């Protein structure tokens, strides 16, 4: 089935930020749009606000004046639900309460035609549960836009348990016709993005609670080393701590309090104290006039090593070889052991390797080893995080610090054991795990998961892109180590990830 024809009016019920944004998207695409809100006068106010945004698009030369005028003429506030009777699609963006949404859609069924598509923009409630109140749930879908809807391209098209394929397809094609990038997903807690993104926040909060590093340092590592657009603390301050914590709690409760989705006590205390982020003037960080953001922990300058030996294949960090060659540090090459991950050896014999890939113990049980964290792009990264084994020498840590400084990087030394996965490593490993688990359960395809995570939350790479770059057994091995240390289940690798790693291992060992 094709997209909704432009001759079919679109209704948006609920005129808050999301409702206005969705209405603007449909309007600019060429539809007549009817706005309805239960609060008297709100629909007219929303229409005026949308008109003002169209004016700004004209000022920025992103919209022709004639197209603006035509769009304004197609934007019609409605005083009563009965005025939505000729609409081909109704999108709801009202209060995130199941009873409120069910009551609304029951009322809409008495108004719209039999072939009208009904959609909810819910981000946390079950599409199946909302549609369960309808006489004809087959035409009910989720259309989850991301805020701000006119700017962000992603739309999750959610198929409820009773949704008929023909209506899910129409919703998908309509979103695409509106210039969006739709991804198809099954009705599961958090859908794709809010399900798989949880570790991005959870691992940062856990590292803070266990005093591995402070928020400013963790954010700097995620942003400057990992390649994420924002760190977890600054992002949740922007979203709102109450909003982010509510989504986390909803996903956790929907998964029957699965430890992998456990909320943060530190974030709960922040919400209880009223420190909700930018909107309240204080969250993890202070805001407002005169507020100063704390500086991340950065290592003092160290001497560059006289030379470094690259042993074997550095795998996901292979670009470091070229960077060392360009830095002026003498580089020596040495073959590694077959099947073992490569590493860097410093003049004193200390070893430096990618977290989760290598761990060295000599005959006396000593590990003179420093791990460096994962990065989406080591060449573009402005920062590298290091963690030294408890038995590592001061000389090895200084040499590793000096080496990365010679490559033009700020260096953060974490008060952490390399086996813990550091910051980016453990975050990415858990995201990879949840992504494999979601695909194995039929939530979405690998391609749609990667698209959703890149476009929905601006991750530098999708989970399966990370997985291919780091190797099929990397995330499983790291999470298995974390679970061995903390058997609470929070970091336990999924069966899907085990199968992925085991299948790759079998392929490598089969003649």
Short key terms for the protein model shown above:
single chain; 511 residues; alpha/beta; Rossmann fold; 8-stranded mixed β-sheet; 7-stranded mixed β-sheet; 19 helices; 42% helix; elongated
Structural overview:
The protein has four domains: about 10-185, Rossmann fold (3-Layer(aba) Sandwich), CATH 3.40.50; about 195-280, N-(1-d-carboxylethyl)-l-norvaline Dehydrogenase, domain 2, CATH 1.10.1040; about 305-420, no CATH class; about 425-510, N-(1-d-carboxylethyl)-l-norvaline Dehydrogenase, domain 2, CATH 1.10.1040.50. It has 19 helices and 15 strands. It has helices at about 15-30, 40-60, 65-75, 100-110, 125-130, 165-175, 195, 200-210, 215-225, 230-240, 240-255, 265-270, 320-325, 395-405, 425-440, 445-455, 465-470, 475-485, 495-510, and strands at about 10-15, 35, 75-80, 90, 115-120, 140-145, 155-160, 180-185, 305-310, 330-335, 345, 350-355, 370, 385-390, 410-415. The protein has an eight-stranded mixed sheet, with helices on both faces.
Summarize the structure.
This protein has helices at 17-29, 42-59, 65-74, 98-109, 127-131, 165-177, 193-196, 198-209, 215-225, 232-239, 241-254, 265-272, 319-327, 394-406, 424-440, 446-456, 463-470, 474-485, 495-509, and strands spanning 10-13, 33-36, 75-78, 89-92, 117-120, 140-145, 154-159, 181-186, 307-311, 330-334, 343-345, 351-354, 369-372, 383-388, 410-413.
């Amino acid at each position: 089935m094709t997209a909704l024809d432009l001759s079919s009016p679109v209704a948006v019920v609920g005129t808050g930020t999301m409702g206005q944004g969705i209405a603007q998207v449909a309007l600019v695409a060429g539809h007549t749009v009817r706005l309805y809100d239960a609060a008297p006068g709100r629909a007219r106010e929303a229409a005026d606000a949308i008109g003002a945004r169209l004016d700004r698009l004209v000022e920025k030369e992103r919209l022709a004046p004639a197209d603006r005028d035509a769009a304004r003429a197609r934007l019609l506030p409605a005083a009563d639900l009965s005025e939505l009777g000729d609409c081909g699609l109704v999108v709801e963006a009202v209060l995130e309460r199941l009873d409120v949404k069910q009551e609304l859609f029951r009322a809409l069924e008495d108004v719209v035609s039999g072939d009208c598509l009904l959609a909810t923009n819910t981000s946390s409630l079950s599409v199946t549960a909302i549609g369960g109140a309808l006489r004809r749930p087959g035409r009910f879908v989720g259309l989850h836009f991301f805020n701000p809807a006119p700017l962000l391209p992603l739309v999750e098209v959610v198929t409820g348990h009773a949704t008929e394929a023909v209506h899910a397809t129409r919703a998908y094609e309509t979103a695409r016709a509106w210039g969006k990038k739709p991804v198809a997903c099954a009705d599961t807690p958090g859908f794709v993005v809010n399900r798989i993104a949880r570790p991005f926040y959870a691992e940062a909060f856990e590292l803070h609670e266990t005093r591995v590093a402070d928020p400013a340092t963790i954010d700097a590592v995620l942003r400057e080393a990992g390649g994420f657009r924002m760190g977890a603390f600054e992002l949740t301050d922007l979203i709102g701590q109450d909003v982010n914590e509510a989504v986390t709690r909803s996903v956790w409760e929907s998964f029957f309090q699965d430890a992998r989705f456990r909320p943060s006590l530190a974030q709960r205390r922040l919400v209880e104290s009223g420190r909700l982020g930018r909107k309240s003037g204080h969250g993890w960080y202070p805001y407002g006039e005169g507020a100063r953001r704390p500086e991340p922990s950065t290592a003092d300058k160290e001497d560059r090593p006289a030379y470094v030996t690259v042993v074997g294949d550095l795998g996901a960090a292979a670009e470091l070889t070229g960077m060392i060659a360009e830095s002026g540090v003498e580089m020596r090459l040495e073959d590694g052991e077959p099947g073992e991950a490569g590493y860097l050896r410093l003049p004193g014999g200390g070893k430096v390797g990618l977290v989760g890939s290598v761990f060295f113990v000599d005959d006396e049980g000593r590990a003179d080893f420093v791990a460096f964290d994962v990065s989406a792009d080591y060449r573009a990264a402005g920062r590298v995080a290091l963690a030294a084994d408890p038995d590592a020498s001061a000389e090895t840590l200084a040499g590793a610090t000096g080496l990365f400084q010679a490559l033009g990087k700020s260096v953060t030394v974490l008060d952490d054991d390399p086996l813990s996965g550091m910051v980016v490593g453990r975050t990415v490993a858990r995201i990879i795990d949840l992504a494999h688990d979601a695909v194995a359960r039929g939530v979405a395809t690998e391609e749609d998961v990667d698209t959703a995570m890149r476009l929905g939350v601006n991750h530098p790479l999708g989970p399966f892109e990370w997985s291919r770059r780091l190797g099929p057994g990397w995330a499983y091995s790291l999470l298995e180590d974390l679970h061995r240390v903390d058997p609470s289940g929070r970091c336990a690798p999924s069966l899907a990830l085990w199968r992925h790693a085991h299948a790759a291992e079998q392929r490598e060992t089969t003649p």
